[in-house]
Structures are given as C-alpha cells and as structure tokens.
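JOB MANIFEST
job_type = single_chain_structure
chain_count = 1
residues = 311
[input]
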Amino acid sequence: MSQTVLVKRLLLLLFSCFLYISSLAQSSIEKLFNRGYHYISVDREQAINYLTQCIEKDSTFTKAFFHRGICFFKNGDYNNALEDFKTAYRLNPENNVIWMYQGFTYRNMGQMEKALSSFSNYISLHPQDTSAYSYILRGKMKYELGDFTGAVEDYDMALRLKPFEEKYEYYRFVALYNSEKYPQALKAANRLTRINPDFYGYYFYKGNVFSKMNQPDSAIFMYNIAIIKNYNNSDSYFYRAQAYQQKREYTKALEDYATAIMLNNDDGSYYSMRGNCRYEMNDKAGACADWEEAGGLGYYEDFDKVKKVCE
C-alpha cells in the first residue's frame, strides 16, 4: 500500500472520528435542551439549570436562550429574561415572536414605552399574524400611556381581524369613554349589549355615557335595566341617585343613596354625595353627618365643606 493511500485513509478515519464525536456532543446538547424544555412546566429552576448547561456547551443554541428567557420571565427575573431574549434574537432574527416576549417583560417592569415599541416591532415584522392579539396588546400599552385615540385604532384593527369579540369591544368602549368621545362610546356600548344582552354592566356603562352627555332621563332608564338584571350592584343605585339629583328629584335620589350604602357601607363617596344631596335640600345637619362619615372612611373630596358649613 502506497504512503499516499495510507495518509488518505488516516485522514478519512480522523474525519470520521471527528464527525462521530461531534454528533455525540450535539446529541448531548440536544438531550440537555430537551430535559430543560421538559422541566419548564414542572420545575423552572431545574429547567434553567439544564438550559444553562446546554448554553455552556453551545453558546449559539438559540432555543436554549429563548426558553431560558421564558423561565426567567415566569420567575419574575426580568433583567435576565431580557438578556436571554436579546441574545436569542441576535442569534436568530427570524424569530419575531421574541419581540412579543420582550414586550411582556417590559410591561411587567413598568416600562410601557419600551413595551409599546416591542409590540410595534412584532406587528411590523409579522404582518401575517391575524390573531388580533398583538393589536390588543399594543392598544393596551397605548391606553396605559394615555393615548386613548391610538388605543382605539389598535382595537379597531383587532376587531376587523376578529369581529364580535366581546372583550375587544369592551376595551374599545373604555378607551372611547376615557377619551370623552361619548357618542362613539355609546355606539360601542350598544354593540356590547347586542353581543351580551344579559350582562347588567353594559347597561350601567350606557347609563354613565348618557350622564356624561347630560341626558339624565336616558341614564336613569339604563340604570333601571342594570338594576333589574343585577339588583345587588351598589354602583347602579349610586349613579342613578346622581341622575335623579341632577333632575332635582331629591327624594328618589336619597332612596337610591340609602340603598347603595346598605349594599356597600364602606365607600366614602356614597356618603359624601348623599351629603351634597342633603345640603341641596337644606338639610345641613344630615349633610354634615354624611360628610363626617365620608371623611372617617378616608374620602375627603367634600371634606372641606365640614369646616365651611358645619363648624
């Protein structure tokens, strides 16, 4: 056998050994990852341990960083979670879902601007996602930042992707209500009552909208429906009382304030508003007693009246 042939065979043998050893190493890494992945829902600390071993053996194993980041996130270790998500994305920029997890992490850290940016990045990089959830998440971040109009835009997009989703309609209503777009909020509340006509809360919300639009009769009508559907909700009586008070129907207002207090006697605002109603009726003693009670419960919005009127 010639020396050249012998050298070639030795090189081939060495290469085969290298491939075999590499395959064993890769198999060992995969086993560590699979163990870590298995423990994510059982024992996150153990999962982190196995995934860390996997990363120590292969610092380019993207899935190990990503899933270890999820473990850190679920453990509330947000800084380490972010580090792992960023590393996973650097290793595999095609995994756009990482932006969603970064958004969740920033949201839990109270960094709403960064959460908003992360959700926006996911939407721009993954436009084929028709689940609507990403728009809801971004809408919530905009809402938290006080951008009610932007929130409504995202909720509208979510509803175009998933029409008649009750909770999405509710988010949209709240954003419209808080942005003081009451006619639009009323339309949103109407849709909610069509989707779920049995839930008292949507009629209560419609009553609130009518109150904001200075339509006390319509507000009272809606509060009536809310009370018929759930007569134990103290807020329905409380807000109906305010509508009656707006109409100067003080006897009915006092009856509703009394019912609200009977159902929930720990809310200082109930006593305070009843005090205002009594004061309008020239019942100074009753008003002062209610304002004092409200202050005792920690509600001080009308407490200055105690010094001005009662002393």
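[summary]
Confidence is low (pLDDT under 50) at residues 13-26.
Residues 131-197 form a domain with the Serine Threonine Protein Phosphatase 5, Tetratricopeptide repeat fold (CATH 1.25.40.10).
exit_status = 0
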